[in-house]
Here is the input.
Amino acid sequence: MSADVIIGCQWGDEGKGKIVDKRVSSYRANARCAGGHNAGHTVIVDGQKYVFHMAPSGLLHSGVYNAIGNGCVIDLKALGSELEGLQKAGVQITPENFGISYGAHVIMPYHVEEERSKLSKSIGTTGRGIGPAYTDKARRSGVRISDLYNIDKPEIRDRVLGIIESRYRIDKERFLLTMEKHYSAGKVKRWLAKALLTSLDKDFDVDPRKVLRELQDAFQPMKQYADDVSYVLNRMLAQGSRILIEGAQGAGLDVDHGTYPNVTSSNTTIGGVLTGLGIEPHQIGRVTGVVKAYATRVGSGAFPTELDNAIGEGIRERGIERGASTGRPRRCGWYDAVQVADAVKKNGVTELAVMKLDVLDEEPGIRLCDSYELDGREARFPASDALLALCKPLFENFDGWMTSTKEARNMKELPKEAKAYLKRLEMLAGVPITYVSVGPDRTQGIEADWL
Here is the structure.
């Protein structure tokens, strides 16, 4: 059978969790392939809200194996708290329905400290250590779930302790060199230097064994879930089962294809599915690109269609546009068909799911960006935030429908203005729309029946 993918085609927060929740019951497994607990998927079932940050939202369905792949980075305490909260809400989590890849990397305490630096804040990260964890992964100085699982082996334990000790020692040496440089240049007074050096021992005199013990304590409740996720998923596929892969963030935040440098630290496009789970490329089947009926972005970065006015504020309030993980308000704007078309091509998207159409119910006029102009010429969506900031969006105008769509359950029940708008989105994307969401609840959606 096939591995079907749910992937974001904007800057994340598109509503992927609802699509996963709607479809996952017909799959044998649900897997996360990239990202960390900066993701936030909200699912509402019978008025009960479930927020997933790291765990796959397929945990709400019995008989589904849920996996965190090797492409993910994990904050052990945060994941432990999330699992505990889900269990208290009545969600059953066992080694039979949940697995964490041995190859997933661990977010260390110093990763969080680093990402809370001034530079990271300027980029607009969540400050949760995800970027630095991926950096250490790339330079081969990371700690993985398999390391903690096998920490009783002396060779592995010594390596992990060496990594921890080296990290704090390097930070201390860098600080000392900086202090010496500024003191010699007369930029730091003697009394201030002494005060800083006194506190230095408290800040940097870290016992690697204590850090490791804390990691082991946080890992202990989750040790039962550690698994060879790639093997499990490939075995399911070989046996004819279908798996559903749950993307994190969106194509616009991909470290290679997004608006660099205001991007995340992993591949949020289709390539991240293969490297982040270790499944065979030919197994990829249906790829559903998820978009909102408008656009949002969190943090810094160019946003050609942004509405920094009362219209944008109205969309933000009606759409409850705040991050499920961070609570940060999202910037809102008109739908960007250039961005979506780029994501469709680069991800092999076969269909679109349009979310939050109901948020536009009160808009008398609606616009969408159908093209960019850069230096007097038509431009494609650039993988550069600086270039995107220079692009001039060109808009099409549509009449609003000014009536509620929340009760619609088929395309015929939508106002003709809403259908005209959706048809134009479909045409510009070049793939069919197969689902339209008209509210947050699991039941508030339309299977597109005009195909």
Observations:
- The chain has a mean pLDDT of 90.
